[in-house]
Amino acid sequence: MKLFVDNLTNVDFSYLDARRGLLGESWLVQLVLDGSLNEQGMICDFGIVKKAVKRWFDDCIDHALVVPTGMNDLVLQQDAQQTEVAWKYPGGETFYCRSPRQAIVLVELDSVTPESLARWCKDRLLALFPDEVQGLEISFVPENIQGAYYHYSHGLQQHDGNCQRIAHGHRSRIEIFLNGQRASEEEARWAETLRDIYIGTRSHLQSGEGEEHHYRYDAPQEFEIKLPASRCHLMDTETTVEQIACHLAEQVKQANPDCDVMVKAFEGVGKGAIATA
Fold first, then answer.
1. What digits encode the pLDDT tens for the residues 188-222?
2. Residue 39 has pLDDT above 80, yes or no
3. Nearest Cα residue to 139 out of 166, 162, 158, 120
4. Taking the CA of residue 40 as centre, how many other CA atoms within 13 Å lie in the half-sphere pointing to its CB?
5. Which pLDDT belongs to residue 37?
């Protein structure tokens, strides 16, 4: 017998990619359990499955920076409190991140893909279930997006939960309307501008806006990240999706002063903010 749960949850996180660098991602989680029936005629109660799996992802992958330890040019330092990651982009630029241990997940992989990360998660998830569950298959599925989208990473100093982590991210679509009509060219332009980007807050910037951006804040734990300025987009506010939508609406309005502008900015799958200008 098999038990399946489609779209059980979604995970929003960032990871290091050997070619693209820091990459924000959002994946839907699909789960299949293989096992025998218990005295209730079930493999496992759906409520238990959903709660256990979602709690594990919330604790381990969601809103974290996932680092494959088999990457080339990777230097790791870790103690009981924090993890430091240093890596070289293909062009020689430096990436560095220092965060509490819970905010950086080290996975014994050469690279992060939906398939490789699913294999890494499989045995860890299987241990959550009773003996009737004898096998487990998990898969990650990107949202099917028709139109423009971008990958971004950020950190929210003022957030009470895990969004305060300085390097977590999302794969998000963007919809822009000019005078009530979808503006596909504007959407494509902004998706390209924000492709594989780190969206930073100016008050977190520790150094000048040169070739490297260095961000640091306490929230209340200490977070720090350094990456090439070419991989960053700077905002004057916190980088909540509400503020991102307002920022984009203002920028689109400057380029289209005679139009009414509406921006629908997504934060991962099925949620986001709307701003007008």
1. 999 999 999 999 999 999 977 789 999 999 998 99
2. no
3. 120
4. 6
5. 64
**CB atoms near residue 229 (< 10 Å):** 18
Axis crossing angle, helix 46-60 with helix 114-126, rounded to the nearest 10: 120
Domain ranges of the chain: 1-169+197-236
For 201, the 3-state DSSP assignment is strand
Per DSSP, 156 falls in state -
Question: Which residue type is seen at 167?
Answer: A
What CA–CA distance (Å, rounded) separates 195 from 189? 10
The 3-state DSSP class for residue 82 equals strand
Q: Could you give the CA distance from residue 159 to residue 139 in angstroms, rounded to a whole number? A: 30
Q: Where are the beta strands (DSSP E) in the chain?
A: 2-17, 21-35, 65-68, 74-78, 82-88, 94-100, 104-107, 133-142, 149-154, 168-178, 181-182, 197-201, 212-218, 222-228, 232-235, 261-266, 272-276
CB 135 within 8 A of CB 142: no
Per-position b or e across 177-192, b if 16+ CB within 10 A of its CB: bbeeeebeebbeebbe
Domain 1-169+197-236 has CATH 3.30.479.10: yes
Predicted confidence band at 32 (pLDDT cuts at 50, 70, 90)? confident
Task: List Cβ neighbours of 136 (8 Å cut-off, separation of 6 or more).
Answer: 31, 32, 33, 34, 122, 125, 126, 129
Length in residues, the chain: 277
Bridge partners (DSSP) listed for residue 31: 5, 138
Contact 22, 227 (CB under 8 A): yes
Q: Are 211 and 128 in contact (CB under 8 A)?
A: no
